[in-house]
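[job 0417] fold request received: DNA-3-methyladenine glycosylase I
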Amino acid sequence: MSGYCDTAPGHPVHGPYHDHEYGFPVRDEQVLFERLALEIFQAGLSWLIVLKKRPTMNAAFHGFAVDVVAAFGEADIERLLNDAGIIRNRRKILAIIENARRIQALRQTHGGLAAWLDAHHPRDKADWVKLFRQHFVFMGGEVVGEFLMSIGLLPGAHRPDCPVCQQIAQIRRS
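[job 0417] inference complete; emitting structure tokens
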């Protein structure tokens, strides 16, 4: 996504995400779940739309708290489908709820999503996609690839000469 390093810095919406989140290592389950959900929402849409709707989606999904979203039922689904502030796609909403339940299950088998990721790292993108398709729903190559780049598990989030790439390298060393 080297083009992102050219266009995002200084942009009012893309800039903060590029400069402070994209490609940085993530361990927090709630942040991991939000990133996965945002990538699902992005499928077929522009990243700008997702970032603009991010605050409203965080509110609608209770900050992407895994246990809260995993407990969503029909009333919650209807509430979400009627919320003009979010991306209202039934398949994506159902996938996010189901993936919250699957993350809960990973707590039993691996101690959580971060530990599950650690247990399978490193892999190439194709192997990650296969693995994610076995364990989660709505997992295309772009969703998986962008998710993993966004949390620093796959390379390519930033150009090597991007100042953010240097920051991330420094974090990894310390």
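[job 0417] notes: The two ends are 25 Å apart (CA to CA). Residues 105 and 111 are 9 Å apart (CA to CA).
[job 0417] exit 0
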